[in-house]
């Protein structure tokens, strides 16, 4: 199974390619944000060349669909659509919070994970996942709210990129693991999701925003500063 995966939902860009299920994972990590639109395609081309794969030889194009940065999600979806339309390869959209949970499992062995990503505007995206019988199951979310609203069951691991930023406001009895939605995590998740029939035509490469509002007003920003 030949797979390309990428995530641009955060301030980090992550890209990976694997030729065959037993093949090595070739990866690239770089800066996200506005520069992603210019650097993602060259990174993909370089990794495909290293793997000796043409775009049409891929079995799926796997991408992080969100939640996350609006700009990053639009970039990921547009690139997935463009590559899919041009090659006829199906796309596989994966929740970024699920990728965080998988990254935490790989790093720490955690099987009960509350994944948390910084959503800016003094909020976080979060979801709960449980690993059993070789697969993840969602038990809540994805949701958007204040860090204090995150519900962490007893014994669950809190994982994500928002732990340091909101350390005092995210309460958990279990462990804490800094984790990001990496392309390597997407590659590990992809086989089971593809077997479950979740691949789709390129036109269905759509983002999962969760938040509808992009920015705060000046009054809202002032109120948040005053409350700290």
Automatic annotation (TrEMBL):
One of its GO terms (cellular component) is cytosol. Keywords: Transferase. SUPFAM superfamilies: Actin-like ATPase domain. GO terms for biological process: tRNA threonylcarbamoyladenosine modification. GO terms for molecular function: transferase activity. Gene3D superfamilies: 3.30.420.40. Transmembrane segments: none annotated. InterPro entries: ATPase_NBD, Gcp-like_dom, T6A_TsaB. The keyword Transferase applies. Residues 37-151 form the Gcp-like domain. It holds the Pfam family TsaD. This is tRNA (Adenosine(37)-N6)-threonylcarbamoyltransferase complex dimerization subunit type 1 TsaB. The gene is tsaB.
């Amino acid at each position: 199974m030949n797979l390309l995966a990428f995530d641009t939902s955060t301030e980090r860009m992550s890209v990976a390619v694997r030729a065959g299920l037993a093949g090595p994972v070739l990866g690239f990590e770089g800066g996200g944000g506005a520069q992603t639109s210019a650097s993602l395609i060259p990174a993909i081309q370089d990794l495909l060349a290293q793997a000796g794969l043409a775009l049409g030889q891929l079995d799926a194009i796997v991408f992080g669909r969100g939640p996350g940065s609006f700009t990053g999600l639009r970039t990921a979806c547009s690139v997935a659509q463009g590559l899919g339309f041009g090659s006829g390869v199906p796309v596989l959209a994966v929740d970024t919070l699920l990728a965080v949970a998988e990254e935490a499992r790989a790093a720490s062995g955690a099987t009960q994970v509350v994944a948390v990503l910084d959503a800016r505007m003094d909020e976080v995206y979060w979801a709960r996942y449980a690993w059993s019988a070789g697969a993840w199951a969602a038990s809540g979310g994805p949701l958007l709210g204040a860090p204090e609203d995150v519900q962490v069951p007893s014994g669950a691991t809190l994982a994500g990129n928002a732990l340091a930023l909101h350390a005092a406001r995210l309460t958990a009895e279990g462990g804490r693991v800094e984790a990001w939605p990496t392309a390597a995590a997407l590659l590990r998740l992809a086989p089971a999701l593809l077997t479950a029939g979740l691949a789709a035509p390129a036109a269905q490469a759509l983002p999962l925003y969760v938040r509808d509002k992009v920015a705060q007003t000046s009054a809202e920003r002032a109120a948040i500063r005053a409350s700290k």
